[in-house]
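Running low. Invent one:
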Amino acid sequence: MARGRWAQVIALCVPAGLLAGAYISELGFGLYPCQMCWWQRWPHFAAVGLAALAFVLPAARLWTLLAALSILVSGVIGGFHAGVEYGWWQGITGCAGVATGGADPLEAVINTPLIRCDRAPWAFLGVSLAGWNFLISTGAAATIVWLLTRKGR
């Protein structure tokens, strides 16, 4: 497979995989997202769309580079969020609530759990989910750019 096509596949699969992991951890394991977690998801949604466009529209290289930029944005937000979780700096938001269903809106608000942005709900090898997003996203973005700019295409 040509390097440009590998870049497209990475640009599509990495954000899709990270979003799938986020939703599996949320819906399957109760690791609800805080506000900064949501901020990391939005660029991945954009990256999936941009990468998909690279498969069907002309200027595939441009769409793939835009997807890589979007993936990088999510990684940078993840790095910032990880720094907040590790106590390296202050966050710019407090908590997020997870709305629960019910007939009484006041009861739903009162019973809504708050998700703190400065506490990592889960870590693997000492790295939080936000930290993993930083590592994977920035690595993927760098790989995509390298594949697209490498001589001898």
